[in-house]
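Subject: for your reference before the review

Hello V.,

The reviewers asked for a structural picture of the protein, and I figured it would be easier to keep everything in one thread rather than splitting it across files. Below is the amino acid sequence we used in the manuscript, unchanged from the supplementary table.
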Amino acid sequence: MSDCDFGLIGLAVMGENLALNVESRGYRVAVHNRSTDRVDAFINGRAAGRNFKGCHSVAELVAAVKRPRKLMMLVKAGPAVDQLIEQMRPHLAPGDIVIDGGNTHYLDTERRTKEVEAMGMLYVGCGVSGGEEGALKGPSLMPGGSAAAWPHIREMFQAIAAKVGPNNDIPCCEWVGPRGAGHYVKMVHNGIEYGDMQLICEAYHLLKEHGGLGNPELYDVFDEWNRGELQSYLIEITRDIFSVRDDRTDGFLVDRILDVAGAKGTGKWMSQLALDLGVPSTLVTMAVFARALSAQKEARVRASKVLSGPASDSNAAFQAGIGETLGERPKFVECVRHALYASKIISYAQGFVQLQEASREHGWGLNYGDCALLWRGGCIIRAQFLDRIKEAFDQRPDLENLLLAPYFQQAVTRAQPAWRAVVAAASITGIPVPAFGTALAYYDSYRRERLPANLLQAQRDYFGAHTIQRTDDPAAFHAEWLERRRPPRS
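And here is what came back from the structure prediction:
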């Protein structure tokens, strides 16, 4: 009997939680998992007494859902998605909607949208952010694909999404664009998440190593930061981490964690695609490399016994002439806050520049204010800061770079003295701040009318006859450097 409003395949924790979220909004949900034991465990456990139907096959699940069917896959990205589509295909009818809620590469979604539409059905690639808690209580949803699917899934998706706004009634879910647009926006979200996490880790490293703050003091600092312009989910959970005691020692758990970072690949995708587009998403790239360097633990241990850094004198930065800027501990903490906020602005500015270029490349017609809205609640990078981004794009939909919006321009200008002093102090004391440093380098490059690329072009033309262009003439030419150079001294 086709009496279910929604079908979901994939009952790992994210799938279970999302199914429970959908059912809690008044919908009857059919569920299936490759391992049918998991279906039975869910139906007899967390779903007991609720409006669910457990299905032991794909065919049974498809048959259980009302037409036009809304069928969502929450399985590992890659071949498993194609295999599921093929399993569903014989049982689908024209107009049915197949939804991929995994962390899928956008090019796969571009391809699948065309393939499923050619079969007569509709396809949605939907970014889902917020982790297990978000899936249960309200995630950020970024749907894209077949536009004709949106009227059929809009009510349900906006009902289950996180809500923001003065009256808590604005859903963090809106149609993103055609084909792979939704998954691309989710990928950029994840890349910005990489950058945010690395920046926070560098702030922690500075406060601990240079500022001498212990975990209780770090808790207080991050608690204070979470009450101002840095307020965000990541700042909040970082605060909480500093309060958790280790159950094996008298210390704190964070100090007992191996310093080797994991990654699932979406940050790398964003970095690779930025290179393909020719846009300088330097911060996410540096964050990816920082994780890669952390993974070289054994090599770092060996190097630490051989390679030396600056003198261990904790006053080295002040002796270098920047002591008046950094001052004592409270002022240093405030300087790090400014550096963190300015670098965060750079991270988001780069992310939106990449979205703009990708939208032009693929003809998606993204609404950048809506993208910021999608991330204001439910997701990992949710932050008060995103309201300012939405305002900036609402005021100027064609805004070339967030740094040119008055609010962000003024914020970075205010932060500059502290930002520069912190990066300088880190360099002098030997504390690595790759993300802070690359953010500042991007800002200094972007704000300059002229860069040394004129010399680079001369070098390319010299060794490869790639041609150059004069500042006063658009015509390209080769300069015949060998003939015109001054001979070296014999």
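For the response letter, the relevant points are probably these. Confidence is low (pLDDT under 50) at residues 317-321. Residues 238 and 399 are 32 Å apart (CA to CA).

Happy to draft the paragraph if you're swamped.

O.
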